[in-house]
Amino acid sequence: MKIAIISNFYPPYYIGGYELFCQKVAEGLRRKGHQVFVATSYYGLKKPKIEDNIWRIFGPPILLHSAATFRDFLYTIVDFLRRCFFELRDSKKCAEFLSSINPDVIYLWNTKKIALSILEVCSKSRLPIFYYVFDHHLVEPGRWLNFWTKNNLIIRFLANCLNVAGIRTKPVQLKITSLHFATHFLKKATEHRSIKGAKIISSKVIYCGLETDKFPFCQENFNFPNQILFVGQIVRHKGVHTVIEAMDILINKKNRKEFNLAIIGPIVDKSYYLFLQKLIKKNNLVNKVKFVGQVEHKEMTNIYRNHGLLIFPSIWDEPFGITILEAMASGLVVIATGTGGSAEIVKDGKNALIFPKENAKKCAECILMAQNPELRYQLRQQARKDVENYFNFSKTINQINQDLQQIITYNS
């Protein structure tokens, strides 16, 4: 079977777990004997590039700025013009991609911020369309679409002119053969909110599984429980400030000087990053909190091996939590808020410890609870078992492959 995967990012140039999992599924489907081709943006590169069945041909995803200052306003104008250009150009690029490989099925992944015209080409192809949903972007249209929904005569006139010119300002009418959700939470949230422009034939939950052999269960070093880890994007909704505030409680108020915090991940929101830096300096934690930045995913195995606790302090409804799975498989004690889809992974007192979001005091209490060797042993052992039993990648890829095969067989 020939499978055409379309995603906004694709490793090694990526933002988060969505794209990493997309790559794992592509490789897994190849091992099943399928021919898999990927079309993505040339984000991370200076120009488009086609290599090893990876077509990096679409314009880099556009993040429209908010026009708070005149400089931001100029950025917004530039982004607007770039988006219009990519809407026109990328439809041709997508058509060339599909025409060249002649796939049996299209598998959509993260289509957030890429040209809507790409989806229109997919819709007109009349091929079976599968969609793996790992976040909220199907029901959160984003700034581009939101802008054109404003009740303003000038905006509506401009939108009509752009549509005539081939620049889409409205959702694409997609007929989705099968919708795969990463969690029951995502499925339920999507079902309660209409997906504009989409007709869904079937939907199911297929958990984002982990290749456990790549995350070996590590034996504890004597100081592991003191080495705390955060992994994720540096943005406010990830709740990094809660962990720093918990560090202040532990080190400055409870005089527990043994704790250290490493923060791994890309700085997506620079203003929030600067806020965190000020918070660290204010609480005299400069020698206790370290920003490592984004690292190659293959390095994460060694990073997990040298830490004892993972804090997952998210304050929004997380779609899933692949970092949680990696840490649990590696033998770290996970301390999390358990929001959204992550609640389907972590179970308080069984395989993790849960604290209320933005509650630094409770977070600090959980960190101290995790210093108990007996509790820590119980949590670590159960966490590894749960990953192996419920979130194993071999089970995931088998479910995806079966769904693809059934539709192709039915349409033959």
Give an account of the 3D structure:
The chain has 412 residues and is α/β, with parallel strands linked by helices. It has 2 domains: 2-209 and 393-411, Glycogen Phosphorylase B (Rossmann fold, 3-Layer(aba) Sandwich); 212-390, Rossmann fold (3-Layer(aba) Sandwich), CATH 3.40.50.2000. The chain contains 13 helices and 16 strands. It has an 8-stranded mixed sheet, with helices on both faces. Strand 1, helix 1 and strand 2 form a beta-alpha-beta unit. Helix 2 (70-101) runs parallel beside helix 3 (116-125). The chain starts with a strand and ends with a helix.
Structural class: alpha/beta
Beta percentage is 15-25%
CATH topology of the largest domain: Rossmann fold
* CATH class group of the largest domain: Alpha Beta
**What's the number of extended β-strand segments?**
16
Number of helices: 13
Terminal Cα separation, in Å? 12 Å
Order of helices and strands: EHEEEHEHEHHEEHEEEHEHEHEHEEHHH
Low-confidence stretches: none
* Helix fraction by DSSP (H/I, runs of at least 4): 40-55%
Gross geometry? globular
- The gyration radius over C-alpha positions equals 22 Å
Spatial order of the strands in the main sheet?
Answer: 3-4-2-1-5-6-8-10
Q: Based on the structure given, which CATH architecture of the largest domain is correct?
A: 3-Layer(aba) Sandwich
